[in-house]
Amino acid sequence: MSELTLERGLAAFRAEVDGPVAAFFSSCVHCGICAQACPFYLETGDPKYTPILKLEPLRRVWEADFTLWGKIKGLFGLNHKVTDEMLAEWEELLYDSCSMCGRCSMVCPVGNDLALMIRKSREGMVQAGHAPEGLIAASVRAIQTGSPMGLQWKTLAVQINHVQTSSGLEVPVDKEGAEYLVLLSSMEIINFPEYLEAITKIFDHAGVTWTLSTQCFEATNAGIQIGNKDIAAQLVERVVAAAEKLKVPKVISPECGHAFTAIRWEGPNLIGRPYPFKVFHIIEVLDELRAAGRIKTEGMETDRLSMHDPCNLARKSGVIQQQRNLMNLVAENFVELKEHGKFQWCCGAGGGVSSNERAEPLKMAAFKRKKAQIEEVNPERMVTMCATCRTQLEEGLEEFNMEIPVVGLTEMIAEHLVEKN
Amino acid sequence: MSGSMEFLLWTKGPMFNIAIAIFAIGLLVRIAEIFMLGRAKNFAEARAGEWGPGLRTMVTRTVADPGTFQRAPFNVVVGWVWHIGFLMALLLFLPHIALIESLTGLSWPALPNPVISLVTSVTLVALIATLVHRMTHPVKKRISTVEDYVVWAVVFAVVLTGWLAYYRLVNPYPLVLGMHILSAEIMLILLPFTKLTHIFTTFIARWYNGAAFGRKGVQS
Hints:
By secondary structure, chain A is mostly helical. Chain A contains 21 helices and seven strands. Chain A is 53% helix and 5% strand.
């Protein structure tokens, strides 16, 4: 890679300014309401974590280069410049203290989509050489090995064997013409292998044809988290190539939030063309199967369960009712967190925060908002559908000595399938 | 007396034309800047259209969601009070309607003067409250710029001079009326170059927000 410089960074910031960005910055009245939607501000009380303040570098670029007034001010040397020192200081604000959960975008009275602008700002940060080490390493691993955690197919192959042995079912690999190509996340393969077994059982039960691809099994996109379109596009192209090779009409994104927004919403724009297939989150697929009567369950969970909506799935992708339909299928004592669905609170780990080791204390601080929500309804277990959220919930609850196990929704559905005769 | 009369006539004549011209051209440029930048084509398959959700967010974002209201009731209520008060005084005070009629031919019924004077008093108090909040709340203090205080001062001056003129608390009368008109003109001139632009651009911003979330199936 050629050298990363302030000039390159500024050019990347400029390339991100579009009509919405101009409308947003033109409209901000500095009311500070966005801070009231940010777990990083609310749980630290430090005003530097106010969302709109995190966008100051992008705002300065917009004002100086895209407004008449800014150009006039520039003639007199009155513009506040974006400097290397400034970006170094802002690295923590744009990465460590923002999970791009999008809650601020939902409450800004003038309608600013702040999370979108954070995503855009990160493009500039990468080119200026101000991205966190942890995310750089994850991006390099993703490009070189196909997985942000450096996981290789042989590790997955071992898991596939385990699943086949314990379930007695085949895990299809490289099956051309299957209905679904199933993607996984490395985090899931390492921390939650039960997910693969669950979908193997559910798809067998529902008579769904599916396949994994040895060419591409990773759904996550480190390029989007760090903010680099080139890396992100390359990772998306791998999925597209695998899906095209196996001629599948549908691709399933796993229990991971950002992988879904990456492949579902950003992907086609990164590669500059629509896909020849449709993309679904596993929860959407399961709910479709449920609605079609293809999932038959027996028995109900009787303990008090609550649910965490992943930001990327609910607020940022509109998958809100599906997980509730599925919960109602197998849980008789399901209680909602007070603010849920599109107004849910982030677990604190998304948007690259969990891959950025330095951000650990902030990640745990932000979790306190989720913790308070959980304490309010006092469930016996939490259910979620994102491996990053799940890991964060498990770690966070343990940190605060709360004995509340966390389960994945897909697994829970698999446990209730009616046995075939 | 004659000096103040000349001042009043200047604010109503040449200065008014200058202010309207700068306001109109400046605002046009700002809006053009936004729309000329446009948006890149979106290749991701949408769940829903953009127009409906965009138009809805343009309206619904006026009211805070219950959680935000609970976390920032002062911010929300005071913001509402002074915005409504300002708009009522601007649009429902007889002399203002007469001015609008002389410019556009449009007119509508006015509220009785005592009501407008009460509304204006409340607005002044609310504006002072926003200033105190800005200077004391850690978030607002941290994000505030010189522009925030300049804009506050100009808006406050417009309301205050209007209130002073109504009660004839400054002599001679043409002087205070001229000050009121001049401060309104300064507000118009600053509008396209400061956060006052939000009066117009907030609806564009809200539309973009509602459209972006709406196509993903979420009403923002």
